[in-house]
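Students often ask why we bother predicting the structure of a whole assembly rather than each chain alone. The short answer is interfaces. A chain on its own may look different once its partners are present, and contacts between molecules only exist in the joint model. In this exercise we take three input lines together and write out one structure for the complete complex. Read the inputs first and try to guess which parts will touch.
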Amino acid sequence: MHRPKTWLLLFVLLIAACAQVQDKINPYYFDILITIGINIVLGVSLNLVNGYTGQFSLGHAGFMAVGAYAAAAASIGITFTYFDAPSANAILAYLADPDQMLFFIVRPLAWLIHFGIWAFLAIMNAILFIHNEVVSHLQLLPRIPQFVGALCYGGGIAALAGFAVGVPSLRLKGDYLAIVTLGFGEIIRVVIQNTEAVGGSRGLSIPSRETGLFGTYLAVALTVYVVVLLVHSTYGRGFLTVRDDEIAAEAMGINTTKYKVIAFVVAAFFAGVAGGLYAHFKQFIHPEGFGFLRSVDIVVIVILGGMGNTPGVILAAILLTILPEGLRALAGWDVLPMSVREIVQNRMILYSLLLIGLMLTRPQGLFSGGGKITKWLKGRASA
Amino acid sequence: MTEFLQQLINGLSLGSIYALIALGYTMVYGVLKFINFAHGDVYMVGAFAGYYLAPWVWKVIPQGKDATAFSWSTSAGAFAVLLLSMALCAALGILIEKLVYKPLRSRPRLTVLITAIGVSIFLENFGQYLFGADPKSFPEILPDRAIEGLGDLTVMVNQAVVLVVTLILLVVLRFIVMKTKMGTAMRALSFNPTAASLMGVNNDVIISFTFGLGSALAAAAGILNAINYPSIDPLMGILPGIKAFVAAVLGGIGNLGGAVLGGIILGVLETLVVGYVSPMYRDAIAFAVLILILLFKPNGLLGRAEKEKV
Amino acid sequence: MTPLLEVDRCTVQFGGLKAVAEMNLSIRQGELVGLIGPNGAGKTTAFNLITGVYQPTEGDIRFEGRSVVGRRPYQITARGIARTFQNIRLFASLTVFDNVRAACNMHLRHGISHALWRGVAFTREEREVEEMAEELLAIFHLDHLRDVECTGLPYGDQRRLEIVRALATRPKLLLLDEPAAGMNPTEKVELMRLIQFTQEKFKLAVLLVEHDMRVVMSICERIAVLDYGVKIAEGTPEEIRNDRRVIEAYLGE
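Now the answer. The structure tokens for the assembled complex follow.
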């Protein structure tokens, strides 16, 4: 749209004004509003990858997890102890043990493995050093800058994770990419589960509830701004060409890998920010909450809204956040027989039926296909 | 050394289960070119079918008093449970295909993939609703004892049965695929659906047949596994489903021999890693293998590369 | 003078089949060369080789003296080779105008930060891209259709759009894969005129694959003939018309 920066500023002022009265809102509705905001960020960011670039990622919750845990660690001030000589020596001693199976493979390559292990640990230590430095500096900041810093840090680490996952994976197509991203999402979850410093499988408590309406909806505004403006530019048209026909896109001089990775990294960043917001809202995070089903949740939002249809995805996020609440109310309705009420209560049964039904009847999403709002936005959004 | 052999046998047993499930994935992929996410849950349904069918079967075929005896009535009972469960799940597979996948046959593969995810979630949650989420104990349809006379090696009757039944099923499958008309039609379909239908193949029937066959094998896997590990619950199909899928990809998706090879390799690898390194990495192995294979040899060990026509 | 494009003893092997075998071809700047042969002779494969979609199993391909083997297609396009496709590959979700603008991406100076900030530099460059796209569309009489979804266009227009799109990458060598397919005789004449016009105006070399002999014979300066992946003849239209091997290849012995 013309003057997008002006619209962004106006929106930010609006939410700043609303945030002033946020204490007056009923806590139940407040919670729903925050959750809606987080889901919008997740849906719109995934839409960049799945909808606009046509790459099917099933591991978005993994990046949310990375962001949540990184932001939480920054807030709480969790630092990691470095890998040191004893642990390196322990690994080497284990590999040198003649009783264990890998011995015959390991022996001839001993010096290479020595070097490899030291190099690996050195790199890990460098990463940990950066983390510890950032965290200790953030701890010195006052409350709000610290929160913002933690969110940015969460997003940044998630973006790095997005890069690390994206570069090797994005050369795969369709089903295969979906499975690999699913796999990486699970691996991230398992790694977190085995990291005692952030609570492992016991979960992590975050003492301060920093997330408010302003923070959440500022993130929403920025996510929508970035995704929409990025795609509706000549540069951003590259994403769409990758979706439509990769071979033709390459033939027209478009570096398809670069675009895929950029989409992936940007989406991961915002997923990480959403994770950070979530961590400082629920005040308790747990690796199980960021698994495959969470990724499917986000994918459903994107599909329901229509792949490549940002306004639709926003509406879908709102709808899918409110729906469980509505169902919960319905479950309390005495008029319905008990068995129906039980099924209604089981959100996942209805979710899956919704998914199947949607794919059978309207795979382009509920809100897409020549919608007037979309056409209007498209017309205004091109520079 | 006996320890290693023992682990190997355990691995083969586990690998057989994976192989049976993987065959279903690979057959469906070969014929429809999509990954049936819900396949692992058919495995679960198979196990539960056995759970509910066993008491009825035992009413018809009375079991002997001696629980450790490997008698004719015991094996007949077990056999009946297996076959009935396989038939039931074959029907379920065909039903799912007709209701949900068939209308989507001309749609992009991703649409079907998402639908399959939906079916999978539905089966798991509806199963929880229907059967209850708590684990149940699978009835002992075969006596739980070791085979005598093997020295230090402990091979349970159950494990031996798993290996033998898997072998039999594989032989039967190979016969069906290679020597029967249905099997030839299946193979034709997997190469070129249009040509196949022009040659008089009724694609719908063959696709239903493929689904039925794959689901029957998954059900068999479910029962065979439940014989060894009697705890069953509605979510039991998730991990084996993913691992079997990895096995299918490892062997080369679309390739029947590859599915078996992949299953065995994965089963043995998993058992060895758990036994010799750490039980913590049991589930991670499958994911690690998946990522390595997809990054370095996406067509699997026995698969062929398909070049896109430009 | 070094030829613009040199295909040097290139072979592409798929399994046991040599789709292209020891092919030699060179094209000079500004030349209009035709590539003909019976169906399945390897013409599109040759295109795919030159544009980097396939890698030769043997041999080399040089553009402006430098090898392009091993380069990704988008890098080869950046060097100055553009193409159209035998089965039209337009960007289905984009309009006519956007299809052309999409091909301008490789020359953009602005990136993500500009797209987000939308400052003066961004607006200016967007304007430049718009103007160039409009100009190209006007030459090919497609400007009145600029906001139409490209999938709604008639077949002939879609083919012309593909050519416009390829031209938007500002190539030095244009590969046209059966551009006249599906056109009626009037459209074909117009197309021939357009190809010659663009060649002169943009100082392009053109490699043309076509089945319509009239088109090929009338505009090509030189013609190469492929059969079963092997170049069996090369020369002026007159020479090719009378070449015995060519006649045999097309009509059989």
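Check your guess against this: Chain C touches chain A through 41 residues (CB under 8 Å).
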